[in-house]
Specification:
By secondary structure, this protein is an alpha/beta fold. It is 54% helix and 10% strand. It is built from eleven helices and five strands; from the N terminus they run βαβααββαβααααααα. It has a five-stranded mixed β-sheet, sandwiched between helices. α4 links the parallel β4 and β5.
């Protein structure tokens, strides 16, 4: 039920022991698993079981060197760490299904942040699960996901686009420390939506757009935060990004969440949880009155 929580990154193809064309015909329902190179064999088996990966599932290995290559310009080496542990599975979905993300043992990057960054990178229509054997920041997970998507679809994502996706993920996570994860994700999503429908022509127009979007959301940005977002979205705006696809995937991602929230079992869980909380409050109130 992690998707219910509101506070709920590199990439490069490597030479495999078998030809890459073995992955090029991935179709709906195919699952690709990514595993951190520094996992012990026991950890690998536990994560494969957790991800419900089939014995013959396609597997991509992610190294700590790759993580530093794509994240080193945006966060400290200490936060990236010295071991590649983040792992994930990506299930190819049907056309226009959108992206859905679920995480476990990720303590800094939220599901929605991953969704936004993956959409920026060009990933679409897939179910994503991200996990680790212990709690990690989650910044390195995007490495394996985009790598797996490239391999499975036989599509090379431009290097600049990968870099921007990583930068977006980190900037959103950092912004969440000052305004909260939900507000940070909301702001980034709204700005991207504006860029996809009415892209500004000048840097000043972009700055005004970001500032106005923040104001409309009740968010106060520092000058440093605003400058950082302007620089990020200026780079994003100048990339050859399919903005129609971005808008479509953002809309589908919202629909996936709404559909999840409206499921009968989800409603039942929420109802039971609320009843549980009420019972605790009633118990406390009774104890105070006695």
């Amino acid at each position: 039920m992690k998707k219910l929580l509101p506070y709920l990154l590199s990439f490069c193809l490597i030479v495999f022991a078998f030809p890459i064309y073995a992955f090029a015909d991935a179709s709906e329902g195919d699952v690709i698993v990514t595993l951190g190179e520094d996992l012990t064999e026991e950890q690998k088996q536990e994560l494969l079981k957790e991800m419900e990966a089939l014995e013959n599932a396609m597997t991509v290995t992610v190294t700590n060197e790759e993580e530093h290559k794509y994240l080193g310009d945006y966060i400290s080496k200490a936060l990236i760490g010295t071991r590649a542990l983040s792992s994930s599975s990506i299930t190819i979905g049907k056309k226009d299904q959108g992206l859905s993300v679920e995480t476990n043992n990720i303590n800094w990057v939220t599901d929605e942040m991953y969704t936004n960054a993956l959409i920026t990178a060009g990933v679409k229509d897939a179910e994503v699960y991200i996990t680790a054997p212990v709690e990690v920041s989650g910044t390195a997970a995007l490495t394996g996901l985009i790598k797996a998507y490239e391999v499975s679809t036989d599509k090379i994502i431009p290097e600049d686009q990968k870099q921007v996706a990583n930068e977006e993920l980190v900037k959103t996570a950092k912004l969440s420390e000052s305004i909260g994860a939900d507000k940070a994700t909301e702001l980034m999503t709204k700005i991207k939506d504006e860029l996809s429908t009415n892209p500004p022509e000048t840097e000043q127009e972009l700055r005004d757009l970001i500032q106005q979007t923040a104001n409309d959301s009740g968010i106060e940005l520092t000058n440093e935060e605003l400058d950082g977002l302007v620089a990020l979205f200026e780079r994003m705006k100048n990339l050859d990004i399919d903005w129609d696809q971005v808008r479509s995937q953002l809309e589908n991602a919202k629909e996936n969440l709404n559909e999840f929230l409206n499921k009968e079992e989800t409603k039942n869980f929420i109802s039971k949880f609320i009843d549980f909380v009420k019972s605790i409050i009633d118990s406390i109130a009774g104890a105070l009155q006695s």
